[in-house]
What we know:
This protein has helices spanning 4-23, 41-61, 83-95, 107-120, 149-162, 177-192, 211-220, 231-243, 261-264, 287-301, 309-326, 331-339; strands spanning 26-34, 64-65, 68-78, 100-103, 124-126, 142-144, 168-173, 196-202, 224-228, 249-252, 274-279, 342-345, 348-351, 363-369, 372-379. The chain has 380 residues and is α/β, with parallel strands linked by helices. It has 2 domains: 24-147 and 286-360, Response regulator (Rossmann fold); 149-279, Rossmann fold, CATH 3.40.50.
Amino acid sequence: MNHPAIRLGAVAAACVSLSAQAAEPLLVKIGHVAALSGPAAHLGHDNENGVRMAVEELNAKGLQIGGRPARFELVAEDDAGDPKQGTQAAQKLVDLKVNGVVGHLNSGTAIPAARIYAEAGIPQIAPSVTNPKYTRQGFKTSFRMVADDAQLGGTLGRYAVQTLKARTVAVIDDRTAYGQGVASEFEKAAKAAGATVVKREFTNDKATDFTGILTGIKAARPDVVFYGGMDAVGGPMLRQMKQLGIQSKFLGGDGVCTAELPKLASGQMLDGQVVCAIAGGIDGTLRPGFDKFKADFKKKFGTEVQIYSPYTYDATKALAEAMVKAGSAEPARYLPVLQKLSMQGVTGTVAFDDKGDIRNGALTLYTFKGGQREELGVVR
């Protein structure tokens, strides 16, 4: 027979044990994957810094999840923009049991990685992936922070004809999932608006010499040259266009629409000659908060926002918000909350449709003057 004092002591010990467990910090691992090496590394580090900034702010805020103080940790991986390395990085994050993933930077790496996260049940928010296929694979764990290529390429195709009055266009892509996707959507929209495609060419995402392609384009004398790819190739291409005396306007998607483009192009052909679009846009009442984010980011990291760090920042905050509301950092528990989330971020309202795409995604059109990117306007 148990003595009453012994029973009471056991109950008290159990309560102390439960209380200690409740007070024990909950480690929440946020995975991030991007190209941290290779030609797009500057964009990858920009994205990673957005996550890092959000993680540090979340820790400073002292959030609680399910009654336990949460400590967030960034787990960063490099996929070098390579699909094979991307799936390896994704599997590594799964093996490390991350609670959520922000990434990847590129469509070509994010699309195959999405299956790995889906099979593990881990939510993945892609901050800069624009290929429509990413959210068309049927995975309930895949989310996107920005408008896709159908909107981006289509908007630029219509802009070329309706605003720039282009009648003939040449189209080049880098044969990546992103580059081909956005170039095809541009071509489709430009044709539908009445333009003639006089040249359709391709290169690769590591090329440095475009003489053959550009010589043929020069002979065709298009009003507009559209390039689907990243700034590391787009910049040298612009420089060589200038050397060959090509006067066509140069259009591109978000991959070339970076603060680094003037340096990569050696300042050539940028004053009013380039029009590009970024998937995402800040206007109206959002502007003060976004400007503060940019100022805080520069103060913290000593560099300007490239493109998508505000979206990785918001994506990280969205994962945390869903965890807090669900009372759990377990992916299966907070995923249904994330699917229905509506949160105000520095980039606008973060809310996803039934495919995982951002609702009411915006685009921002830019040009370059005096070596600086200059906004032309936000469209939705």
